[in-house]
Amino acid sequence: MNHDAAAQLWRSAQQLADLLRRERLTLATAESCTAGGIAFAVTQIPGSSAWFDRGFVTYSNDSKLKVLGVSPVYLRDFGAVSEPVARSMALGCLNHSNAQATVAVTGIAGPDGGTAAKPVGTVCFAWAIRRDPTVAPWVRTTTRLFEGDRAAVRTQSVIEALEGLNVLLDAPPRCGRASEARPGVPPTRRILRIRHTGWRARS
């Protein structure tokens, strides 16, 4: 990891810590391709035990099913790298933790595993916020396409996950019901190509 990436990770994690404290929320993570990288980044911040609850590393499909309760229908119809699965991971993370804010990541870091439809560097994200336990959580999903080697894809994914939370917490939604992803309906994909040295471009 180069110096710029390390500095960006620290800034993003510190901003997230400040926002979680301000909003009095706790965080949990559900990670596949980043394999705990998000949890590692946020717990680098001193005092993280006050706002970080737990992290799930669900690398295999079986672990997504058993640990987070991801629907086998989503895995069958959309594949593990898809917004419906990322969304289900984020909601499962909420349901199996004490957190009010979660982030989920599932993707193809490479160098193998890519297809024409989902090339190496494709990463799906979901962020969920539940401020009121009596109201359905608010969920946002997106898909990115990162360039670079395996390490670069994973690093950019961690930064994207943190930055996505920062955006949502800095301007929280007024309300939000989580819309259900339906089998047979392809997810909306917003692909953004990011160069190895360009860490984030907003869409």
What does this 3D model show about the protein?
The chain is an alpha/beta fold and 203 residues long. The chain has one domain (3-194): Alpha-Beta Complex (Maf protein). It contains 6 helices and 6 strands, in the order αβαβαααβββαβ. The protein has helices at 3-23, 37-42, 61-68, 72-78, 83-95, 150-170, and strands spanning 27-31, 52-57, 101-107, 122-129, 138-146, 193-194. Strands 2-1-3-4-5-6 form a 6-stranded mixed sheet, sandwiched between helices. β5 (138-146), α6 (150-170) and β6 form a beta-alpha-beta unit. α1 (3-23) runs parallel beside α6. The longest helix is centred in the N-terminal third of the chain and has 21 residues, at 3-23. It is globular. The two termini are 25 Å apart.
Key words describing this protein structure:
single chain; about 200 residues; alpha/beta; Maf protein; six-stranded mixed β-sheet; 6 helices
Short description:
With 203 residues, this protein is an alpha/beta fold. It is 37% helix and 18% strand.
**What can be said about the biggest beta sheet?**
6 strands, mixed
**Overall average pLDDT:** 88
For the largest sheet, list the strands in their spatial order: 2-1-3-4-5-6
User: What is the general shape?
Assistant: globular
What is the H-and-E element order? HEHEHHHEEEHE
Distance between the termini: 25 Å
- Radius of gyration, whole Å: 16 Å
The CATH class, by name, is Alpha Beta
Report the count of strand segments.
6
Question: Which architecture does the CATH hierarchy give at level 2?
Answer: Alpha-Beta Complex
Low-confidence stretches: 175-203
Task: Tell me what portion of residues adopts beta-strand conformation.
Answer: 15-25%
Give me the CATH superfamily: CinA-like
Number of domains: 1
Helix content: 25-40%
- Oligomer class: single chain
Number of discrete helical segments: 6
Structural class: alpha/beta
